[in-house]
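cron nightly-structures :: item 1 of 1
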Amino acid sequence: MLRTFLSRGHGLLRRRSLDQQLEEEVRFHLEMEAAKNRNRGMSSEDALAGARRAFGGSEQIKEIYRKQRGLPMIETAMQDLQYALRGFRRSPGFAALVVLSLAMGIGANTAIFTLIDVVMLRSLPVRAPDQLVTIGDASRPTAYLVGGPMANVFSYPLYQRVRDENTVFSSLLASGKTGNLDVEIRGGTKEDAHGRLVSSNYFDVLGISPFAGHSFSPQEDRAAGSNPVAVISYDYWVNRFGRNLDVLGTTLRWFLKHPSCAQNDSPNSHS
C-alpha cells in the first residue's frame, strides 16, 4: 500500500509529462486503427471516424487513467485551492474578510479548547488529583459560574470542627481567596500580587514539596494574631527575584485592595 501511495504521489508530481505521454499514446492508437480502415478501402475521413468509434471516448479513457495513476482527493483539493486563489485575486477585499473570519474562528476555538483543557481535561499537578473533593454549598447561584460548590460558606472554626470530626476523608484543608493584594517587599514600592489564605496542612494534603525553604508547620495557624508565614510561587520567585535564594526569610507587608475588607493594621509576613 505504501509503495502504491508513493508511486501515485510521484505520478502527481509528473502530471504534465504523463499527460503528454497519454495524449501521444491515444493519438498513436487512433492513427493505427485509422490506417487499418484505410487499408480496407475507407476514405481518410471515414477511417478516422471509424477508429474513434472503435476506440471509444478518448476523454473518458484519459480521465480513468488519471484516476488510476494519481491521488484524486489531493488533485481535487489542489484544483479547489487554485480556484479559490484566483477568486481572491479578483476580489482582494473579500479575501481579506475570509482570512480575518478564519483567524477569528481559529483563535476562538483555540481559546475555548485551552480553557476546557485546563478546567476539565488536564489533571492538577498534585498527588492523586482524582481523589480531591470540594466541600461547599452546591445550591448557591454563583456555584454554576465556578463549576463547583461554593466553599466560602465555611468559617475557619467550622472548618476546624469538620476536620476534627471527619470520618470520611483522609484529610481536609482550608483555602480562601484574598483577592488582589498590594505587596511591599523590603520597604520598597507596592506591587500587585494574588494570594490565598490556607491552612497549615495545605501543601501536605496536596502532596507538594517546596523547591526551596519549607512549607507551613502545624503551629503556625494555631496562635491567633501571630504574623503569618508566606510561601511564594515558583513563577513569582523566578520573575520577581530571579531565583535568588536570599529571599528566604524576607519580611513583606501585604494590603488588601478593598479597605472595607481590611483590618486596621496590615499584617506582616515572612516568606
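cron nightly-structures :: done
The chain has two domains: 2-90, 154-270.
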